């Protein structure tokens, strides 16, 4: 078998066999197939696309390139959630404790961020001492003991995906649905959870800009999961403005804690309830969305979800003092306010640009080697549809560098569009795809 023939075959629009896909992934992972041939194949896949069977085969090959977690030692139906990324996306820190408080084991393997803000692991490291590095045995023990653990992904979990993504990133071949779907699902399936919920973002601040592409990607990932014997559902959610009000690592941790205490932003709490409802159904806890919703609300209102977050932090060596008093979390020493220049409604907030302003402050990574500043970020006092009086506070920038704060203020001010007329409230959830089919939310 030759890589040249595989590239030519795909360039001619033909489907690759299972053996050809395995040969390519195995050879590339071992360093036997050079980057230039891999890049050529990725580009032909980008234009010629892959069918369902090819996409499943590619996912399987990437899973088999490294370790596969066996979570059979965890009691109950293990669930996991994956978001396709956005701005102010703090759902894992709220959702995990909520679901675990219901007795559903949440075994979450997360990564670090590369982009405008940190990943879940970076956010949790805003809490002094929080440790996400553990052995498989420790991971399983913690989930069995308190119902939840959040660990960093091991370097040998779907290593082929990591290597392929690095190449896709520099060859303009990232945004192909089959390549995206296989990338996401290879990591999730290798992580071992029996029930997987996908939070597929759509809109200006999301990777998928249109609802059509987001629904198509969601269905493709569900089909991959189902083909491999897993129970997978997806919720299509809005990312035309940041989720919640906080953008930045410690700010998002504080917002997550506030939400678990019942004082968080309405949109963030509402989305976590919707995600939690679907997770409870995936785990077989109940078949009734209304019942699941009521149970989750009680877990928050009764303080059990917040206590489960405290258990999580304590279990993984984090500072309980910072959880109980969030003012002790890292915070930028400079505060710069964005004020309204007239009486007006906020028509739109460009989510991606807000994220880039946070990146300027140091809340994210420009490269893999970049060091994140955990205390910087942006807090949005006003969201789309809100009315602002002249001189009223719209957003606050938290910074540790005055020059960066000035640059971020200019970026942030250009993120807003205004209207003199009332603005219609934006939809938060567009649809749910599960075993019962696709349900569009009106």
What's the number of domains?
A: 3
CATH topology of the largest domain: Pyrimidine Nucleoside Phosphorylase, Chain A, domain 2
Count the E strands: 14
Proportion of strand residues: 15-25%
Structural write-up:
- This protein is an alpha+beta fold.
- It has three domains: 3-48, Transferase, Pyrimidine Nucleoside Phosphorylase, Chain A, domain 3, CATH 1.20.970.10; 79-154 and 172-325 and 429-440, Pyrimidine Nucleoside Phosphorylase, Chain A, domain 2 (3-Layer(aba) Sandwich); 331-419, Pyrimidine nucleoside phosphorylase-like, C-terminal domain (Aldehyde Oxidoreductase, domain 3, Alpha-Beta Complex).
- Helices cover 45% and strands 16% of the residues.
- It has 17 helices and 14 strands.
- The strands form four sheets. The protein has a five-stranded mixed beta sheet, sandwiched between helices. Strands 6-9-11-7 form a four-stranded antiparallel beta sheet, with helices on both faces.
- Helix 5 (91-100) packs across helix 12 (266-282), helix 5 (91-100) crosses helix 14 (304-315) and helix 16 runs antiparallel to helix 17.
- The mean pLDDT is 91.
């Amino acid at each position: 078998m030759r890589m040249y023939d595989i590239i030519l075959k795909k360039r001619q629009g033909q489907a690759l066999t299972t053996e050809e896909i395995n040969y390519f992934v195995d050879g590339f992972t071992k360093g036997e197939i050079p980057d230039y041939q891999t890049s050529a194949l990725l580009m032909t896949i980008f234009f010629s696309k892959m069918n369902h069977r090819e996409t499943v085969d590619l996912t399987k090959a990437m899973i088999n390139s490294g370790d596969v977690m066996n979570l059979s030692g965890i009691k109950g139906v293990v669930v996991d959630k994956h978001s396709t990324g956005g701005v102010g996306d703090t759902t894992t820190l709220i959702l995990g404790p909520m679901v675990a408080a219901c007795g559903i084991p949440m075994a979450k393997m997360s990564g670090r961020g590369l982009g405008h803000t940190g990943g879940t692991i970076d956010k949790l490291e805003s809490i002094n001492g929080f440790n996400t590095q553990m052995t498989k045995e420790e991971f399983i023990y913690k989930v069995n003991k308190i119902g939840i653990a959040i660990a960093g992904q091991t370097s040998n979990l779907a290593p082929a995906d990591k290597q392929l993504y690095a190449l896709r990133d520099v060859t303009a071949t990232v945004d192909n649905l089959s390549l995206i779907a296989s990338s996401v699902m290879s990591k999730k399936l290798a992580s071992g959870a029996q029930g997987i919920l996908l939070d597929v973002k759509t809109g200006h601040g999301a990777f998928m800009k249109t609802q059509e592409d987001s629904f198509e990607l969601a269905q493709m990932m569900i089909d991959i999961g189902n083909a491999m014997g897993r129970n997978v559902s997806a919720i299509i959610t809005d990312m035309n403005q940041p989720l919640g009000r906080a953008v930045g690592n410690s700010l998002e941790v504080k917002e997550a804690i506030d939400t678990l205490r019942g004082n968080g932003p309405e949109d963030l709490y509402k989305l976590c309830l919707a995600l939690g409802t679907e997770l409870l159904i995936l785990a077989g806890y109940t078949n009734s969305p209304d019942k699941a919703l009521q149970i989750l609300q009680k877990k928050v209102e009764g303080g059990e979800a917040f206590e489960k977050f405290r258990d999580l932090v304590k279990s993984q060596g984090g500072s309980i003092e910072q959880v109980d008093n969030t003012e002790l979390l890292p915070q930028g020493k400079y505060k710069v306010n964005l004020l309204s220049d007239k009486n007006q409604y906020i028509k739109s907030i460009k989510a991606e640009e807000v994220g880039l302003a946070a990146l300027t402050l140091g809340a994210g990574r420009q490269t893999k080697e970049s060091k994140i500043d955990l205390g910087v970020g942006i807090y949005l006092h006003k969201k789309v549809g809100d009315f602002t009086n002249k001189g009223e506070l719209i957003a606050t920038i938290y910074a540790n560098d005055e020059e960066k704060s000035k640059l971020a203020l200019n970026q942030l001010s250009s993120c807003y569009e205004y209207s003199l007329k009332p603005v219609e409230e934006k939809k938060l959830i567009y649809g749910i795809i599960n075993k019962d089919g696709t349900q569009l939310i009106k």
